[in-house]
Design goal:
By secondary structure, the protein is mainly beta. Strands 1-2-3-4-5-6-7-9 form an eight-stranded antiparallel β-barrel. Strand 7 and strand 8 form a beta hairpin.
Length: 161
């Protein structure tokens, strides 16, 4: 076997390996999402099934902090009709920094904060868990404010403006 034939055989054997190792498999690259894309204002409703509260037209602002953190803010006077109590106007302002993870086209948010003392009730604590914002701008947030020892489970469902 001459030198040229040996070289061609060696080249034919080596080319498939060069081709497979020289290219990235783009399908296997992990999509990390872009946390900046969820920043903005979301309009929707706050719902508490237990107490029969459904507050429409509520704005929650999501502010980008870093690739793994955002801040959720609600600063609004809420008009609430509470069964057996009647119409109540409640100024409500809270801001909570959340950790963000991305998987399967959704951003998951978790966080908690404690605000100043509320006279005769204690500190307002807010926990956010099991909350998601998808790539289409739909927000489903589980918000649990606690005053003293009374947690109130609230769900926010909204859409990015």
């Amino acid at each position: 076997m001459n030198t040229i034939n040996k070289f061609l055989i060696l080249l034919m054997l080596a080319l498939p390996f060069v081709g497979f190792t020289g290219c990235k498999d783009k399908d296997k690259e992990e999509d990390k999402g872009d946390t900046k894309s969820i920043a903005g204002t979301y309009n929707g409703s706050l719902v508490n099934q237990t107490m029969g509260i459904n507050i429409q037209n509520v704005d929650i602002t999501v502010t980008y902090v870093s690739e793994t953190k955002v801040t959720l803010s609600l600063d609004q006077t809420l008009s609430v009709t509470i069964p057996n109590v009647g119409e109540q106007t409640i100024p409500f302002a809270v801001s909570c920094e959340c950790d963000v993870t991305y998987a399967d086209g959704k951003y998951s948010l978790t966080g908690n904060t404690q605000t100043a003392e509320i006279p005769e009730l204690g500190a307002l604590k807010v926990v956010i868990k099991d909350s998601t914002i998808d790539g289409s701008g739909n927000a489903n947030l589980k918000i649990t404010p606690t005053v003293g020892i009374m947690p109130i489970e609230i769900t926010f469902n909204g859409k990015k403006k």
